[in-house]
Amino acid sequence: MKTIENYTIIKNTEKATLFRCFISEVNEEKEFWMQKSKYEEIENAIHIEDDVWEKKVEELKQPKEIPTTIVYVEKAEELEKTWKLILSAELKNISLSPWLFAPKSLILEIDDKDEELSFKVPLWFWEKSLSNLIKDQLEYFNKDRDNDFFEKEDFNLKTKIEEV
User: Fold this and answer.
1) Which of 14, 48, 70, 76 could form an S-S bond across to 162 if both were Cys, CB 3.0 to 4.6 Å?
2) What is the pTM of this model?
3) What is the pairing mode between strands 75-78 and 16-23?
4) Can you give the pLDDT at residue 158?
5) Backbone dihedral angles phi then psi of residue 49, each to the nearest 5 degrees
């Protein structure tokens, strides 16, 4: 049984807890999620079964690689909890400057070199955001049309994207 006495609870959800503590097996302080059913908290210490702890340590030693995308934007505006990323696109022959909000917690890296601003974000976030952005743009431009509707294929993103 693994016992951890010196830890901080970062976040609590209904089913899991995010802890921060020094992990001797990796010789550094780490944050990790643990299902509430997988540990007991007794007298200011958390107790975790050995097999559960061994799996968690392996996970911490070899963190999963998250596929990412770098989005090069024309402009961006920093807000309290998000960045407003202003993109460049066309809908057939109409020039657009659509924007999307990227939570600061999902921005892995910001680079501002050669007068080019870029944001590194998880691929899943980019794909979902782009899909929603296209859907919203099509709805907006098609709302007053009776026929000859714009299609997804008519949307052309001009913003440079690089999958990492």
Assistant:
1) 70
2) 0.67
3) unpaired
4) 95
5) -60, 145
For 3-37, give the DSSP string: EE-SEEEEEE-SSEEEEEEEETTTTEEEEEEEEGG
From 20, 36, 61, give the residue that closes a domain. 61
Which two structure tokens, joined as six digits, stand for 40?
């007991």
Tell me the one-letter amino acid at 11: K
The residue behind tokens 């050995």 is 50
Domain count, the chain: 2
pLDDT digits (tens, 9 = 90+) for 89-134: 999 999 999 999 999 999 999 998 877 899 999 999 999 999 999 9
CA gap 79, 71 in Å, rounded:
18
**Phi, psi angle pair for 120, to nearest 5°:** -95, 120
150 and 75 in one domain? yes
Q: Phi/psi of residue 156, each to 5°?
A: -125, 110
Range of the domain at 150: 68-163
Picking from 20, 45, 61, the residue at the C-terminal end of a domain is 61
The list of the chain residues with pLDDT below 70 reads none
> What pLDDT score does 62 carry?
86
Q: How many residues does the chain have?
A: 164
Q: Element (H or E) spanning 104, and its range?
A: none
Domain identity same for 27 and 42:
yes
